[in-house]
Design brief:
By secondary structure, this protein is of the alpha+beta class. It is 44% helix and 18% strand. The chain contains 15 helices and 12 strands.
């Protein structure tokens, strides 16, 4: 497909998220996006972004409880995840009724929010929503429910803190975000989960389940009137509170450094993390593309050309503070690190060929569109545009901004952000042969 064809596809898929045409006007009848309508409104203190899609029988609802790790302390890390997980066991109604709807429930605590929602048939939307809302409004927090939920979260946490592939991420976050809320685990550490009491959960539910912390995104064949009615009758009854969303502060700038955990493992795990500009910055787009270019080059140089690893790429965390990096698992960490540093330096010191960059961005755009075609991923796209960019309508600029990135922009982004690297190491330190 040509570059022009890819850009056309971008408009067809992403602009309906905003219900807008390329000029920022409503689409003409029968034109691109005419089967969709995206609006934002407030119901009983709850901010709602809704995309109505009459052509599908699937609907996704995502309730974003804002704040993420900024709501936590070291002692309370994981409290929101534990609260909502425990609500599943509050009464037999929750598990039995939810199963009958056939909907898939999602509960994901992350750096900037906890998302709680479902994907299912549009005809079952009202029934599923009432169950979900009941868990938010009146979570069952008996000792038995909390014990059962805590056990499951502890199992996941112990795996996260011991299995090397997960553990290296924990080390990397602690290295990059020292003295910053992002260093806290939104799903809880083994220590914090053990210490959270039923009283803590009850107090958190009373104080933090407020409508000012909530963003609801609905995508699918659900009339707006039905959404308004359901919200009014359920979570709209909660206290409003005084929460105000804002992008988190950037972490303090530090010189490049290492956080090392020496373990006798057959494979060594290396992870380099660096932060980028906020999503509201024009340089954000170049940073995102530069990280994707680095990922492609690491794969080629480390796996294809040298055979040092089956896993070599640049992770990217699409948070309010975007994070890029470089990851490799290898039995030869000293050799792999040399390649990682060389590829980072190449992006810092050399401008990418224009034609090659255009082809790369076209491919990146196509993959992004394919990954965001489902109702639940479109809901996530709308939420990020609403919260990170200052309004869901600004999401329509996504492809235009990506395609506006020039080779010099890539060079500047790499120069300004790729040199603020914090390295995490997990494995046998003797294999480094002093190459730190």
């Amino acid at each position: 497909m040509t570059a022009a064809g890819l850009r056309r596809l971008a408009w067809l898929v992403l602009l309906p998220l905003c219900g807008m045409g390329p000029s920022g006007t409503a689409p003409a009848p029968g034109g691109a996006g005419s089967d969709t309508l995206t609006t934002a409104y407030e119901v009983s203190g709850v901010r709602v972004v809704q995309r109505v899609s009459p052509a599908t029988d699937i609907a996704a609802a995502r309730l974003y409880l804002l704040g993420g790790t900024r709501q936590l302390t070291e002692r309370t890390a994981g409290i929101e995840a534990l609260l909502l997980r425990a609500s599943q066991y509050g009464t037999a109604q929750f598990s039995g009724a939810m199963a009958r709807t056939g909907s898939l429930v999602v509960l994901d605590a992350d750096a900037d929010w906890t998302v709680f929602g479902f994907t299912g048939l549009a005809e079952q939307f009202a029934a599923t929503w009432r169950i979900l809302a009941e868990r938010v409004m009146h979570p069952g927090l008996s000792e038995a429910a909390v014990t059962q939920a805590r056990g499951k979260l502890l199992t996941e946490a112990r795996r996260r803190y011991t299995e090397p592939d997960a553990r290296i991420h924990v080390i990397g976050m602690q290295a990059l975000f020292r003295d910053h809320s992002y260093a806290l685990d939104p799903n809880g550490s083994p220590q914090s989960l053990v210490g959270i009491t039923v009283g803590d959960l009850q107090a958190y539910a009373r104080d933090q389940m407020v409508t000012s912390r909530m963003l609801l995104v609905v995508v699918g064949n659900v009339p707006r009137a039905r959404v308004e009615s359901l919200v009014t009758a359920t979570i709209g009854q909660l206290p409003h509170g005084d929460y105000h969303w804002a992008l988190p502060p950037a972490p303090p700038q530090r010189q490049a450094g290492w956080l090392i955990e020496n373990r006798q493992l057959p494979t060594t795990y290396l992870l380099a993390y660096f932060t980028g500009p906020p999503p509201t910055s024009q340089r954000y787009w170049a940073f995102r593309v530069a990280t994707a270019v680095l990922s492609s080059r690491l794969y080629q140089a480390i796996r294809v050309e040298r055979g040092l690893s089956y896993a070599a790429y640049a992770p990217y965390h699409d948070w309010a503070i975007p994070v890029g990096g470089a990851y490799v698992s290898t039995p030869k960490p000293d050799s792999a690190l040399t390649v990682v540093v060389d590829q980072i330096n190449r992006l810092i010191q050399e401008e990418t060929d224009y034609a090659r960059l255009r082809r790369f961005i076209d491919g990146f755009s196509f993959d992004y569109l394919a990954d965001n075609s489902s109702a639940e991923r479109q809901a996530d796209f709308l939420a990020r545009a609403e919260l990170y960019l200052g309004g869901y309508r600004r999401g329509e600029d996504f492809m235009r901004q990506l395609h506006s990135v020039q080779p010099h922009d890539l060079y500047v982004a790499a120069r300004d952000y790729f040199n603020r690297v914090q390295f995490a190491f997990l494995g046998d330190t003797s294999r480094m042969h002093g190459h730190w």
